[in-house]
Predict the structure.
Amino acid sequence: QVQLQESGPGLVKPSQTLSLTCSVSGGSISSGTHSWSWIRQHPGKGLEWIGYIYYGGTTYYNPSLRSRVIISGDTSKNQFFLKLSSVTAADTAVYYCARENTIGWYYFDYWGQGTLVTVSS
Amino acid sequence: SSELTQDPAVSVALGQTVRITCQGDTLRSYYANWYQQKPGQAPILVIYGRTKRPSGIPDRFSGSGSGNTASLTITGAQAEDEADYYCNSRDTSGDHLVFGGGTKLTVL
């Protein structure tokens, strides 16, 4: 069974960099059949895709966040990471990591439980 | 456009049938998926590839669609189906992902 678990600080100061880790078990982030995404949800709002990392380290980002986002991975630890720079209160959200199937159809089949990150001084 | 549009809220009487729709140009190129999200929980996949149901999802959930529209139908809605439902797909470029704004389903 595939499991994803987000971890990182729950509180980040404005203008600093938000850093989160997604630890994956039961599946490999170096798999060529899946991409690995970060998704966030502002309080009481909908889901917003942030970006993903794919086999070989290829990344794609939401154009609205591209200038502030870096997603990277460590295949030896089977983890992938999110860095979001210059955060403001508008970046306060629950952050999810999720696996997307990329063979046949594109869909998110496994999600982490989510972690709330609050941006506040 | 790479956006997906959903009605913000829909209600259904217990045991009746409800359809939730999702519209967007990208659905002409990529199949829609549907996720159910209950308060405080992560989303779960209920339909993928427009019509396919993952194992463990009740058969009262079904998907359909054509052109730029996808639909999620719940036949015989149960109280436990009250949740937010999101559609998603790849965007027209194929490299990015998009979500609809979500539909809050109330079971009366």
